[in-house]
Amino acid sequence: MKRLTMIYIALLMAVMGFAQSPTELWARANQAYTDGNYADAAADYSAIIDAAPVITRAYAPVYYNLGNAHFKQGELSQAILAYERCLRLKPTDKNAKYNLQFAQTQIIDNIADTQVFFLREWVTTLRNMLPLRVWMWSSIILFSLTLICLLLFAFSRAIGVRKTGFYLSIIFIICSVIGFANAASLNHRDSVRAEAIITRGIVNAKASPDRSGTELFTLHEGTKVTIHEVLGGYANIEVGNYNGWIPVNTLERI
Amino acid sequence: MRRLTYILIAVCLFPLLGVGMLRAEDVQFRAQAPAQVIVGRPFQLSYTVNQRGKDLRAPEFTDFDYIAGPYTSQSSSTSFVNGRRTSSFQMTFTYTLMAQKEGTFSLPPATINIGGEHYTSNGVKITVLPEDQPQQASTQQSAGSSQQSGGQQTARQSSGPEQGNIFVRTLVSKTKVYEQEAVLLSYKVYVAGVDLKQFTNNITLPDFTSFLQQKIDLSDVQLQLENYNGRNYQTATIYSTLLYPQKSGDIQIEPASFEAVLLVPNQARSRSIFDDFFNSYTTATRTLRAPGTTIHVTPLPAGKPAAYAGGVGKFTMESKISATDVKANEAITLTLTIRGAGNMKLLKTPGVEWPEGFEQYDPKVTNNFKTSTGGMSGTRTIEYLAIPRAAGDYTLPAVQFGYFDTEKGKYEVLSTPEYTLHIARGVGEPTANGQQPTAVSYVNKEDIRELGSDIRYISAANFVPAGENEVLRVQFGSWQMWLLYGCPLVLALGLFVIFRKRIRENADIIGVRKRQANSVARKRLKTAKKLLGEQKKEQFFEEIERASLQYLSDRLSIPTADLNKETITSTLRGKSIDDQLIERTNRVLSDAAFARYAPAMGIKPDELYAQTEQLINDLEDCKL
């Protein structure tokens, strides 16, 4: 499989005619950014991402730089998209977080968030702190540790070891379950891709998925929305306390 | 001196210039004849040319009798105005002709030779009216109204003497119209045999209450001959107006009245010779009444389209857009031109639904209307100005204009094409914040924007496009992941089962021996007592020692081989047995050993037996 992929990449590069490695592109794009050629830089960063066989955590800086290049060109929605994607790959990236927040201050819509229960907010924040794989592997490891502690508890002669084993196993199993739940939640988020960014300057949300629908509210470029359903070229979106239908081509999934 | 020379030169050149100017003028060669003539009466046909011409070739007068001509006359005039000389010259050729029969005839153009070139005049159309029929003086339609075809009503005011006749007719272009459809109403005076001098200002017109009125300018009205009821009249339209009915039903138009001033020849005999020579007239005023009429107004049918803009008539619409590819903040103008005839003034401006994000301005309306006897016609130009504020692809929906077509008798909807607008990002240097200058006006969250803040710089670290570790790249929810959970679980369960089995086995051997320790010891003690009775002292001590050792081994789960003073003491201490009992245990064991291997020590068997029994009892009570 890996071999096949490699062949595929080689073929792709041959077809493209310019055998530029991602590293070269990266250097060139960074230089273009430094020189202020943001459009060229954005094009090169995009080329790196397009050529990637699989997007891994290593590509987070590419998305981060792409976001910067878009932002410098004033393409707010594209910049926010890139930052969000960077944070999907590397939730701990502080620069990306900072720049995303900075970009979000420039968008027009000031969404008064629905009153979320503070625990839920904490849970979401916790979940977004680590990537999916980390959660999954910690869950697996913690599960194994739980089993070891249980065995110790069951068969140790020493009363102290047994006690420690018992309590540790309880702690470990709870942590393992939390890790699993977070991994499952992230997996769901990534497979559903319900979150999207408005890419058009202004879009009016309608009450029904057609042109004649009553116009309910106006959204501006860069606002993050949640897609519930897609029907006939229209997406049912939710943002804050509002729910409406907007054309699918006015937004892009993260 | 010099000045004089200039003047002389100018005077000498003047005639030459004049000739040149004349030549340069356009040749105008026109034929003129009355539009209407009467059979048997001569009339004049004249050809006028503004330059000297010769060899006039008139067409053949097949439908008319040639009486005389051509008479040639010339006139020229020269005038100086503010030092500029203008001169005109005119040459007229006049024929006298007479019509033979009634009908409408065309005279083909004539040609003339001017300076070697041939010029052609216009053709002339002449309507020949029949001769006056003999007047039926007794049945003269007097002051009454007689219904005529076409809904035209006539009122006649007969003038008494000399069979003179003057009256005003009310003419309407249509009597059955739709709401808002124009009707031409005109008053026409018919004169025959009397001299009409003028109309006074004393005019009473109906108040056209249910109509919108549009008066028609009659400044260049000409007299016309018209044969009406067998008599030829001089006619002229004295008042004409367009009426747009504003309500349906039969609308009555009141009669109108006009006051005319007539010249009446004096009937009195002349007293002087001059009076005979010059006819003397007196003026007389006469009120002429035009009859009223009724107009049947049909309401517009039901089912008005949504885009109906109040128009009734016949219209066309064109649309033009200034640009479809612009940058944000650049204006786009959509121009609609509505052309047609009908109630142009009452048209509503059709609405344009600009896409969201377009700043729109009030449309600019330019009217170019012409009111003629045929109704109001012309163009209305509407310019819609809008400025896109955000980039993107937008669709400008078709603009619809609905009207009622009076010819077809149904509603029609005109529609412009749909325009696709591509709005690019506005020009302008991105500011230090990388933010578009145009978007600044929208951001009003002042508290968040700080001075001198910017996004953080790009990551310049070395980029290695690493793939993911094959092992770590386990998909969430895949069987590999479940395997990763399952393997340790199975392993742990297996270990658990194995350990448990072993412990259970171990627990059984020791437990059994523990539980049976007392009874084994008692058996041995019984045997020892029996041996003591048989005076077998050596065997007795052996038995006592074995009993105590066996008991401790079983009870403390220590193999007999490992049993010595130290292990016993440490084990019993570990189980928190008091030191006295431990000492007793050790003493019993040492006594038994001494008695067995060193009988000379003089240990009494009875005493040892009692001590051993006592020890076992005490240990049995202890929790080991």
How would you summarize what this structure contains?
The complex is a heterodimer of chains A (254) and B (624). Chain A has 254 residues and is an alpha+beta fold. Chain A is built from 9 helices and 7 strands.
Which labels suit this protein?
heterodimer, A: 254 residues, alpha+beta, Serine Threonine Protein Phosphatase 5, Tetratricopeptide repeat, SH3 type barrels, 3 domains, five-stranded antiparallel beta sheet, two-stranded antiparallel sheet, 9 helices, 7 strands, 60% helix, 15% strand, B: 624 residues, Immunoglobulin-like, 4 domains, seven-stranded mixed beta sheet, 7 helices, 34 strands, rod-shaped
Give your account of this protein's structure:
With 254 residues, chain A is an alpha+beta fold. Chain A folds into 3 domains: 2-106, Tetratricopeptide repeat domain (Serine Threonine Protein Phosphatase 5, Tetratricopeptide repeat, Alpha Horseshoe); 118-192; 195-253, SH3 Domains (SH3 type barrels), CATH 2.30.30. Chain A has helices at residues 2-16, 22-35, 38-51, 60-72, 76-89, 94-106, 118-129, 132-155, 159-192, and strands at residues 195-198, 202-206, 215-220, 224-231, 234-239, 242-247, 251-253. Chain A has a 5-stranded antiparallel beta sheet. In chain A, strand 2 and strand 3 form a beta hairpin. With 624 residues, chain B is an alpha+beta fold. In chain B, the strands form 8 sheets. In chain B, strands 11, 12, 13, 14, 16, 18, 19 and 20 form an 8-stranded antiparallel beta sheet that branches. In chain B, strands 25, 27, 28, 29, 30, 32 and 33 form a 7-stranded mixed beta sheet that branches. A 4-stranded antiparallel beta sheet of chain B has the order 1-3-6-5, with no helix packed on it. In chain B, helix 4 (537-556) packs antiparallel against helix 6 (579-597) and helix 4 (537-556) runs parallel beside helix 7 (605-621). The longest helix of chain B has 55 residues, at 479-533. Chains A and B meet through helix 2, helix 4, helix 6, helix 8 and helix 9 of A and helix 3 of B.
